Amino acid sequence: MSKPQPRDAFRSPRFSQPPTFMRLPYRTDLTGVDVALVGIPFDSGTSYRPGARLGPREVRAQSSLIRPFSHFQQVAPFDRLTVVDAGDVDTSPLSLDLAHESIETHIGGIVAAGALPLAIGGDHSISLPVLRTLARKHGPVGLVQFDSHIDTWDGDFGSKLFHGSSFYYAVTEGLVDPRRFVQVGIRGPMYGPDDFAFQRKHRVTVLDIDEVFRIGLDAVSARIHSVIGSGPAYITFDIDAVDPAFAPGTGTPEVGGLTSHQAQVLVRGLHGLSVVGADIVEVAPPFDGPGQITSLLAANLLFELLCIVARRV
Ligand code: MN
Ligand code: MN
Fold first, then answer.
1. How far is ligand 2, taken at its centre, from the CA of residue 187, in Å?
2. Which of 24, 58, 63, 125 is 20 to 30 A removed from 10 (C-alpha atoms)?
């Protein structure tokens, strides 16, 4: 049986039909599926300006333009993998705890079906329940985090969980092996010099934005590979790793970041890692610029991630 393909753009215009990711079939029966695109429209873990709950819809809409072959990775992912759009997780917008429970259950179903979850957030808190699910199957995983923020604070406003505490708990709950955890693109004003105490204590690798530009993208990719090694790895891409000039549609923008192209090159550089799941988070369409450039970038980075997974098959 031939694998599902995006709708043929020569027969069905790209702006037609309900927008699934890259116009793939929408399917919730994941029997035989290799990769499940799944939306997690939840942003009640946001501490500044909300809007990422609208990310999955707009990223899907902007993904209509993406063509199915990667020249730069020389791969046609839909020929190698069975990929479907598995729809969204239904989450409570009113309770972070309930939402995280439903995310964990829903992603658990995807993983149990043997599919790799490729998630579209949502705020960055959604990575924690996804990692809880994956760690149950794989044990502590390696983690590549593209972000301008460290997200290793232990809480905010009296709540342990918010979009800035995901990786504090991912490490302290044993979901992520901190020696196999690398943060890329960190920048912006901090609360104080102790913000990196967690990284020092747990030996988390930080490649801040100055180091990224000082050593160059190829060296960054080499560092990522040496930290992560060959074990199972999760990729989390907070869109605010990219400069707000290129990705203004996000809740906590930080100036002085990556260009769109640098982000693409860094994701392509993940080729060879044993990826067991990935997400792109913090796309907030209400703050996006003309042309929905942030959602368009997020859709393209998801495609690059898909190609990374396909190249290992
Ligand atoms: Mn983040
Ligand atoms: Mn961030």
1. 9
2. 58
Ligand sitting nearest the alpha carbon of 145:
1
Beta carbons within 8 Å of 255's beta carbon, 6+ residues apart: 188, 243, 244
Number of domains in the chain: 1
Residues with CB under 5 A from ligand 1 (ion): 124, 147, 149, 151, 238
Q: How far is the CA of 151 from the centre of ligand 1 (A)?
A: 6
Residue 263 CA to ligand 1 center (angstroms) comes to 15
Amino acid at 189: P
**Residue 271: inside a domain:** yes
| Gap from CA of 279 to ligand 2 centroid (Å) | 13
With a cut of 90, say whether residue 1 has pLDDT above it: no
Look-up: residue for tokens 């550089």?
269
| Report field, pTM of the whole predicted structure over 0.90 | yes
Q: How far is the CA of 65 from the centre of ligand 2 (A)?
A: 26
Q: State the DSSP code for 178.
A: E
Handedness of CA 154, 159, 281, 83 (dihedral sign): positive
Alpha helices in the chain (DSSP H): 55-62, 77-80, 96-112, 127-138, 166-172, 197-202, 209-215, 217-228, 260-268, 293-311
Instruction: Give the CATH number, domain containing residue 110.
Output: 3.40.800.10
The H or E element spanning position 232 is strand 232-238
> Among candidates 34, 24, 38, which has minimal Cα distance to 280?
38
Domain interval for residue 284: 21-310
